[in-house]
Amino acid sequence: MEVGEERFPKQRQVLVLFLLVGVAVAGWESRRYSVMEETESGSFVANLAKDLGLGAGELAARGARVVTEDKEPRLQLDLQTGDLILNEKLDREEMCGSTEPCVMHFQVLLKKPLGVFRAELLVRDINDHSPEFSEREMTLRIPETSPPGTVFPLKKAQDLDVGNNNIQNYSISPSSHFHVSTRDLGDGRKYPELVLDKELDREEQAQLRLTLTALDGGSPPLSGTTQVHILVLDVNDNAPEFAQRLYHVQVPENSPVGSLVVKVSARDLDTGTNGEISYALSYSSQEISKTFEVNSLSGEVRLIKKLDFETISSYELDIDASDGGGLSGKCSVAIEVVDVNDNSPELTISSLTSPIPENYPETEVALFQIRDRDSGDNGRMTCSIQDDLPFLLKPTEENFYTLVTNGALDRETRAQYNVTITVSDLGTPRLKTQHNITLLVSDVNDNAPAFTQTSYTLFLRENNSPALHIGSVSATDRDAGANAQLTYSLLPPHDPQLPLASLVSINADNGHLFALRALDFEALQAFEFRVGATDRGSPALSSQALVRVQVLDANDNAPFVLYPLQNGSAPCTELVPRAAEPGYLVSKVVAVDADSGQNAWLSFQLLKATEPGLFGVWAHNGEVRTARLLSERDAAKHRLVVLVKDNGEPALSASVTLHVLLVDGFSQPYLPLPEAAADQAQADPLTVYLVIALASVSSLFLFSVLAFIAVRLCRRSRAAWVGGCSVPEGHFPGHLVDVSGTGTLSQSYQYEVCLTGDSGSNEFKFLKPVFPNILGQDIGRKAEGNPTFHDSLGI
C-alpha cells in the first residue's frame, strides 16, 4: 500500500461522501439501541433477526457479521438466534470522554445478496465517578480590607460523568465569614466562588481552613472535597483584570510543538509587588497539562504536544492572573483545532473471493469499506481501479464498495490479475491510499486437446525388432491441472481387416508409438490409423490425428528366376544353329525380385561357361547371345551358369544353368538327355578305369583284355547316346522343345517338334507353338508386386 501526493489519473471515479444522516436501505431505517455502561459481558442488547425481518438461520446462511467503525469487537452477533449481545463491558468515559450523547455506530453486513444495515448503540452514563479536585489543598490570600460580598474564584472539581451525574453544586464547611456560590457559565460547566460575608481582621485571625465539597446529581449523589487555606493579608485593594474574559483561538492541527497559541494579558492598578502579575493555568486536566503551557510572566500559551483534530477537536483553558498581594483574576481560552488533510484514506477488505471461476458472468469478487478521519473536503473520497481490467467498482451503502467482474473471464487469455484499488480524498494536498489485490482465475475444462499436426507420417524399415519406437504424436491443452493432463490412445481403424492391435501400440502418457512385431514390406507397404488425445477434465474433451506408417523396403529377398525353370526336372536345352551370326539370341533369363526400388534392380552376368568367349549375357535384360561365329571345332554341348544379382546393400543373387546344344541348321534329330543319363555316362568310364587299375595289379594280361573291352563298351555307349533318337519309319512321337524368345519377345514359346518319316533329309518340322499358361500366370503374379519385372523381361 502506498500513500502519496500525486495527480489522480483519469479513471472511473465514484465520488463518495460521508453522510451524517440516516439512510434507508431496503426498507431498513437506522435504528438506535441503548445500553447502560458497565453492563456485564454477554448481556442481551436486541434481536437483529426480528428487526431485519429475517427468519431463523437466515443470518448464518447469509454470513451476517457486525462491523464497528473503530474495529473493536465490542459487540457479538449470535447467528442462530439473531441476538445482539455485548462482547465486553462498555466504559462510556473511555469511549466518548465528555461527549454526550455517547453513540457507537455499527453496521450489519449480509451476503448473497449483499446488504449493509446501519445501527447505533447509545451507551448511557451511570454515576460511577466521584468529583475530584486537582489539588488536595488550595490557598487563597485575601486582604483584610476586602468588603463583604467580595467574590473569590475557586478551582473547580472534575467529574468524568456527564449530564445529571456531573457536578451540580458546591458547598463549604460552616463559616461566619464565607459561603460558596455555584456559578453556571451556560456551557454546562459550574465553578465554585467563595463569597465574603463578614469583614476579615488579620490581627484577630490571620488564617482560616475550610472544606470545599463538590456534589454531583447522581442517585445516590457522589462527592469530592478539598481543603481551602485562607491567608488574611494586609491591604491590596486592586485585583488583576484581563483585557478579555473569553479568548477564541483557532489552531491548525499540524502546528509544530512550541507554536504560540494565544497571548493573554491582565493589568493590576496596584504598584510594587501588589502590581506584579503572574499567569498560570487555573485548572488543567492531564490532557491539557500535556498539551499546553503558559508563560508565567508573558501570558503566552504555547504547544508542548502535537494536536490531533481526529482525537480532540477543541480545548477549554482557564488562566489565572495573580498579583503579589494575593489577588487574582480569571479568563477562559476556547481553542478550536482546525482540521488539515493529514490522514490518508483507509481501506478495509471485508470479503475476498479468489480464485474466480472462468466463463462465469458478473461475479462478486470483493467487498470493502473506505474511511477518512478528516472532515469536510479532507474527508470526501473518490475510489477507482485501473481502466484496462475487466472489473467494475459498485458503491453500496455507508462507504462500502463491491468489486465485480465485467463479464466472463478466460483463464487461457489471462490467469492472474493485479487489481490496484486507489482511494483519494479531495483535500489540499490530496492524499491517497492504494491497496493491491491479486486475483487468480480458476480453470474450467473448455479447451479440447490440439495435436501439433493434423497428420503424421512415420517411416519404418521392414524386419524391425519388436517393441521398436517408431515415432511420437504430441498434443497440447490450453487448460491447466487435470484439465490439461492428456491420455493418448489408438482409435478403432476404419478398415476392419487391419490388425492394428497387433501392429502398433501407444504410450498413454507421452504418445510414443511402438511397433509390436516385425513388419514385412512385401506383405504390407503402408497402413493408416487414428490416435486420440483425451484430457482428464469433467466432462472430458478429446481430439484425434491421422498417423500413416510407411514401411521401407529392405533387401531381404534374393532374385527369383522364372525362366528357365529350376525345379529339379529335366534341364531345358536351347538349340543354336552353327550358322548363327554373332549376337544371335540364344535364350533369355527371366527373373524377378520381391523387393522394391533399387533392391529390385536386377543385373545379369555370365558366371561360368563350357567355352568362355562363345556366349555373352546382356547385363540389363538377361538375353544370352552368341559372342562370335560358331565353328566346327566348337563342342556340341555347352553348359552356361548365369548369375542374377540385385542392386541392394548387401546385394543378393541367384544363379541359373542353361544347356545349349549346337545343331547344323536344325537338321539333326535331337532328344535332350536327362542329367541323370549324362552322369551315368560319365560314371561308366570311371568304373572301367577302376576295374583296369585292379586288374593291372593282378595281371597285365587281364588289364589289357579289360581295357580293350572297356574301350569297346565306351564307344558303343556314346554311339547309342548320339543316335538314340532313331526310330522305325513312320511318324516320330511328339516332343516339346523350349526355345527362348528372340529379339523383343516378352515371353518364351514351346514348339512341338517331330521328324517326318518319309523325308530323306531327316529335318525337323515345326508344327505349332504351344503357350506355357502356367509360366505366364506365375509371371503375371510377380509383375503385379514388382514394377521392375517388365524391365527384366525387356518389355
In summary, what is this structure?
It comes from Myotis lucifugus. The protein is 11% helix and 40% strand.
Descriptive overview:
With 795 residues, the protein is mainly beta. The protein has 6 domains: 34-124, Cadherins (Immunoglobulin-like, Sandwich), CATH 2.60.40.60; 137-233, Cadherins (Immunoglobulin-like); 241-338, Cadherins (Immunoglobulin-like, Sandwich); 346-437, Sandwich (Immunoglobulin-like); 450-552, Cadherins (Immunoglobulin-like), CATH 2.60.40; 560-663, Immunoglobulin-like, CATH 2.60.40.60. Helix content is 11%, strand content 40%. The chain has 9 helices and 53 strands. The strands form 16 sheets. Strands 1-28-31-32-26 form a 5-stranded mixed β-sheet, with no helix packed on it. Mean pLDDT is 79; it is low at 1-27, 667-683 and 719-795.
